[in-house]
Specification:
This protein is α/β, with parallel strands linked by helices. The protein folds into 2 domains: about 280 residues, Alpha/Beta hydrolase fold, catalytic domain (Rossmann fold, 3-Layer(aba) Sandwich), CATH 3.40.50.1820; about 240 residues, Alpha/Beta hydrolase fold, catalytic domain (Rossmann fold, 3-Layer(aba) Sandwich). It has 24 helices and 22 strands. The strands form 4 sheets. Strands 1-2-3-5-4-8-9-10-11 form a 9-stranded mixed sheet, with helices on both faces. Helix 21 runs parallel beside helix 23.
Length: about 725
Amino acid sequence: MKKHLIITWIFFISTLIPGQAQDDVTLFNYWKYYSDAENSLYKQLSSVAFEQLESRKAEINKLKTIADWQERQSVVRRKLQEIMGPFPEKTPLNARVTGVLKRDGYRVEKLIYESIPGYYVTAALFIPDNIKGRAPAILNAIGHSPQSFRRDIYQNFIINLVKKGFIVLAYDQIGQGERVQYYDEKTRKSKFRPNTEHSFPGGQCFISGYSPSRYFIWDGIRAIDYLLTRKEVDPDRIGMTGLSGGGTSTAFIGAIDDRILATAPTCFITNYKYLFLSEGPQDAEQNIYRFLNEGLDHADLIELRAPKPTLIVGTTRDFFSIQGLRETFFEAKSAYRAFGAEDFLQKSEENYVHGFTKKNNEATYAFFQKYLNNPGDSTEEEVDIIPEKELQVTKTGQLVTSLNGETMYSLNKTIVEKQASGLEKSRTNIEEHLSNVPDAAIRLSGFSYPKEFNPEIFSGRYVNEHYTLEKYLIQGSGDYMLPLALFMPGKNNKNEAILLLDERGKDFAVNSDSLARQLVANGYTVLLGDLPGIGEMGPGYFRGDAYIDNVSYNLWFAGILTGKSIVGIRAEDIIRMVHFLKTNFAENKSITAISVGMLGSELLHAAAFEEDIQRVCLLQPFLSYADIAMTHYYKPSFIHSIVAGAIEKYDLPDLMAVLTPRKVLVINPLSGDGLMADNSDTKKCFNFPLEVYSNKNVSGNLEIFNELENNMVLKQLISWLE
């Protein structure tokens, strides 16, 4: 049975000496110029994004002729296929109508279809009365709203379109309306808000190496398939629109599905330059895996449609920057101009916040009336709103309690299980597999070995009876400095230096926990440092719309977009700390690195790339990336320490195996839920590195202790060090 985390999480605190003096290990309260260090991680990820965007801009500036833009479209189309897909095969929709509502001038068919077998989509088809022949149809993707299309503002927009002669298919995006994935039986609603409903399982999709947008896009593509089964729909006059998250789906689907003639993405289109400068990357499905790394931006989603009719709708006070919208529109105009279809790209703006406005709605009605050949009055009229309960599609009001179908988590879990099986198969050829792991880790994490090491900045010395404390700043991997605290014992100085990395920061490690002091008391030189996002280096101002248990998923998504992971950045900085320690204080000493908590992931990466880390100790690391991806309610704080897409090629046990024959100690590993892993899970997870160490006849160099009692942890660590 698993033990609760709090039992083990403070295993060193009990050994603190009452009344013990505090050590000042802070640096940025003195170095005022660097006092913005807590925002270094986001700014570093942003700087990578800006470089990639500048490279893209240089490519766009070369495009002049229609042939140039057609070649660009081919390149973008291929890239999107690679990083969005692969999509599932098309299977029977098994669409069924669960009820019909009659209203003045139209009817509503409430329906369910399966975009993937067992993956149900709730929707409503609004059909005008007295249709002559086939009518134009509009797919309406709904934004982040618990009520989805049942909400009054969405109904107003939909019914106005219907009153003007359009068939409208509105559907619940996953995590919204009747498609809640984390349903709470007591409250009868989701445990999360819609953004979290997307980003929490979306994080697990990224672990597998693809964007959760795949499911959002596929639901829309299958919705088009359904529309084409209806005799009332003209297949040559299909449009798509959506607000906010619906604008996301409209932009993505409209870029890749040629059956959609006209699109009007609303309150989404901007560009990544201004997104990073303002709100930052948004929730999971809005971020395509390695999108910026592939040289893409929002404008590509519009330019790929040229010369098809497109209306970009925005508001001047939206969190999706209006400046970004205008620049995207200006760039995309060049593409449409080259195609001789400049008038087919239009823009509508209103002085408002994020949301619908009458002016923008009427511009959208007029746009579809013109380009879907359905002329009429574009004036928005007052309509009667249908009570939410009447638009309920399922018997219980939720798919999870009505049909208990697939979710993003369950679909992805199946993928992870296949990836884990493939990884196990690769491991059977030990030498070949291990030879490929470091290159894969470098490529997928975005790691780059430091090219130079600048001189440190000495920042003060404190001397007392038992040890000397010195503080330093060293250059980080970006435009920031790393704060270091070096403790040197006054006596019994051993020929061993230790780098100690604590996920709670060096101040906590020194003044709230006793591990650092105990190591110094035992004669070890100990260097403590804060990595970007940790201690003095974080967490910073950036949170985003997917802020779960005090963890910014959006910060992690910045790495997803750029291909420069948080793990890769931190691994580079660990190597900088090791270089500082070896160069200045441990030239003839062996170096051991110890991590406490989730930073075991970063340390394993750094050790795989740096042989000067001669011994590695992981205290309470999580078991593996795959374990987190397969845990329904995983611990959100683990997310920053995961390399997206890694489990196709390697996982943490593989990095451990790469360290053979170096000595590795693992104490009290944690499962994906943040609780102590049991013996069977630990043994299964670490079977491969144990096998590798055994085959190299150094089985004693890899030691794993599970469920070690609190009072034994320090003793085991000291024994291992000696």
